[in-house]
């Protein structure tokens, strides 16, 4: 019993030691990446953004402003172009993934919920404030009176089915049915 417990303790201790060693390695790697990013950022800024030297005269200052505005416009145009390209590629990617999904033939139905909603509420949800017509469907129905037909009267008058059978039995019943048909 004791050797098994000793093995478990050793395994958990080893696991804890490995975990802490991995965490220490991860921390040093993250610090190295942050330092590398900072160096890369400094190099990029030094290359693309020369230090600003302010001229003394008003004329030179206006020319510098014009140059800066031109650079800002060109950067904005590039940003806009890249955004448009990104949107186009995203749209193409969605279309291609939809085509791929359609070619596979596996259609996933979205989970639908049952919603109890009147026709008025549905039109209001679809059309918004444009909806002014009241769709009370029951109000437009005709009132229909139930007329008593001859068959229904006959069925009510029959009453007991045994009497009806006895009257129609034999030759007399057939004679009555024949006379009623004429």
Automatic annotation (TrEMBL):
<keyword id="KW-0514">Muscle protein</keyword>
<keyword id="KW-0009">Actin-binding</keyword>
<dbReference type="InterPro" id="IPR001978">
    <property type="entry name" value="Troponin"/>
</dbReference>
<comment type="function">
    <text>Troponin I is the inhibitory subunit of troponin, the thin filament regulatory complex which confers calcium-sensitivity to striated muscle actomyosin ATPase activity.</text>
</comment>
<feature type="coiled-coil region">
    <location>
        <begin position="27"/>
        <end position="106"/>
    </location>
</feature>
<dbReference type="InterPro" id="IPR050875">
    <property type="entry name" value="Troponin_I"/>
</dbReference>
<keyword id="KW-0007">Acetylation</keyword>
<comment type="subunit">
    <text>Binds to actin and tropomyosin.</text>
</comment>
<keyword id="KW-0175">Coiled coil</keyword>
<comment type="similarity">
    <text>Belongs to the troponin I family.</text>
</comment>
<dbReference type="Pfam" id="PF00992">
    <property type="entry name" value="Troponin"/>
</dbReference>
<dbReference type="GO" id="GO:0060048">
    <property type="term" value="P:cardiac muscle contraction"/>
</dbReference>
<protein>
    <recommendedName>
        <fullName>Troponin I, fast skeletal muscle</fullName>
    </recommendedName>
</protein>
<dbReference type="GO" id="GO:0005861">
    <property type="term" value="C:troponin complex"/>
</dbReference>
<dbReference type="GO" id="GO:0003779">
    <property type="term" value="F:actin binding"/>
</dbReference>
<dbReference type="InterPro" id="IPR038077">
    <property type="entry name" value="Troponin_sf"/>
</dbReference>
<dbReference type="GO" id="GO:0003009">
    <property type="term" value="P:skeletal muscle contraction"/>
</dbReference>
